[in-house]
Amino acid sequence: MFKGIGVSPGVVVGPIRKVLAEKASGPVPADIDQVLKALESVATDLDKSAESIELEVAKEVLGAQAMMARDPSVIEVLEGAITEGVAFDVRPIVEEAFGGFKEQLLALGGYFAERVSDIDEIQSRLINKLAGIESAGLTLTEPTVVVAEDLTPADTAALNLKFALALLCSRGGATSHTAIVARGLGIPAIVGCEGVMQLVDGAVVLVDGRNGDVIVDPLQDEIATRTEKELKIKARADSITGPGRLSDGTSIQLLGNAGTIDDVRAAVKVGAEGIGLFRTELLFLDSHIEPTVGEQVKLYSEVFQLMAGKKVVIRTLDAGSDKPVPYINAIHEENPALGVRGWRLTRTSNDVINRQLEALAEAAAGKDVKLWVMAPMVNTPDEARDFAGRVRKLGMLMPGVMIETPAAALHADHVLAEVEFGSFGTNDLTQYVMASDRMDSRLSDMTTAWHPAVLRAISIASDSAAKISKPVGVCGEAAANSLLAAVLVGLGVSSLSMAPSALAEVRGFLASIDLDTCERAAQAALSARSASEAESRAREILEG
Ligand code: PEP
Ligand code: MG
């Protein structure tokens, strides 16, 4: 059995085929004409792949790769370095030519740093081409579990994914292409699954994309149990509609997380009761300069219109750390996760935040919407007071804060006293409580909100909130996991906001349990020794 990070749910069984990256060995000699011709040919291949693949996200990445391969700055470096005849080995020159791109992406960190692999791929395609190795791709002719170190969009374009039962990668994190492509195709996928490359082609495996389990030569019993369970979860999700409720009638508001208008539409489609977290970073990332107040008003108004009459929690700009906005986070930081991000931007870009609050007030004026405004990375009561003061002054009545640092959680009685509500950002709260980078797949055993230390921080804060009658919810990834969602309810949260794709399953699960069960599961998880023990104890109580 192998264990990885389940990034797209579903249970399948089938034979594996490995996609092996072909690599030229030894020096690769070439003159400048050959290099430029090969580079154009790589770009053309990428264009063709972009045309042939239906999945929009993969299309975009392939198009961007083709553009990078044709970038004048790359060609300039190559021409400057290979001036006379044949260079003995073009490898280091190619490295240097793409080095600038890579440095920029690495400096941006997070999601962008993961895109360095897109450039590595252009380089290795170019070297392979010059060495006379054509990437053969893998033609799938029967239902197959595709196994690879990592799958690039070009790999997925070359594969006939109609026959892909599941994707399994030994590397990669939750935001890798494999995860995005698999979710888009609706097939199970597991990434960061060390050891799977040792499997031989044809080996039969069971892939459980919900739990991240890969079982070699599974027994019939195991297949039947896991498949049945998966079908039951899907059936339950399809059968329940309407607002979130436990089996005893307790209301648990179920909201959608969004960053774009498309996300808001997806939330509407699954019957979300509102938006529990609108991330505004994307609007700022889409541009080279700060979006104008007018541009912001337009976007926020569209959100309010789609969610007319409903609750919408808009979060002020959380630029920095894993979501760097180049023109705002321009100064190099040794520890960006502990640096100037979220509400701390008021120290460096105060006007940007003020303009955003103005835009929100203007967009909400006269609209039929329940606007709640939330600040990220608030750490202290003074910060909460500053934020709430600015929001109220502009006529917006529901300021709230994310509780995503240990300081905010442990001091929640004072922090929440300044505002109207709190929302646990379990992604960051986990990162900071566990002192483990949320983007580092090597630490994924520690970056889980199941850890009792994280649950205790949440418990302390929600107890404080209850004493002063301030509602608290969750808007981190944890809310999207049905079992964890139930534990969080047991700890006292009254709303859960999640990726719209997860909402139906969580709604279905919550409808099957009562508050007393949630509370017992929460107590069992709190007193566990480890994340896995917390999960298994909670599972036992919740699934009976
Ligand atoms: C979180 O930290 O849990 C959260 C919801 O915010 P983000 O993931 O945008 O940092
Ligand atoms: Mg956060």
Describe the structure.
- Helices cover 47% and strands 15% of the residues.
- The chain is of the alpha/beta class and 544 residues long.
- It folds into 3 domains: 2-21 and 143-218, Glucose Oxidase, domain 1, CATH 3.50.30.10; 29-130, Enzyme I, Chain A, domain 2 (Orthogonal Bundle); 240-543, Phosphoenolpyruvate-binding domains (TIM Barrel, Alpha-Beta Barrel).
- It has an 8-stranded mixed β-sheet with strand order 1-10-9-3-6-7-8-2. Strands 11-12-13-14-15-16-17-18 form an 8-stranded parallel beta barrel, surrounded by 5 helices.
- The longest helix has 21 residues, at 32-52.
- Bound molecules: phosphoenolpyruvate (PEP) and magnesium ion.
- Magnesium ion is lined by residues 376, 404, 425, 427-428.
Summarize the structure.
With 544 residues, this protein is α/β, with parallel strands linked by helices.
Instruction: Estimate the global geometry from the Cα principal axes.
Output: globular
Side by side, the strands of the main sheet go 1-10-9-3-6-7-8-2
Domains, number: 3
Provide the structure class. alpha/beta
List low-pLDDT spans: none
Please give the CATH architecture of the largest domain.
Alpha-Beta Barrel
Share of helical residues: 40-55%
What's the total number of strands? 18
Radius of gyration: 25 Å
Spell out which ligands are present.
phosphoenolpyruvate, magnesium ion
Query: Can you say what the CATH homologous superfamily of the largest domain is?
Result: Phosphoenolpyruvate-binding domains
User: Terminal Cα separation, in Å?
Assistant: 25 Å
- Broad CATH class of the largest domain: Alpha Beta
Mean pLDDT: 91
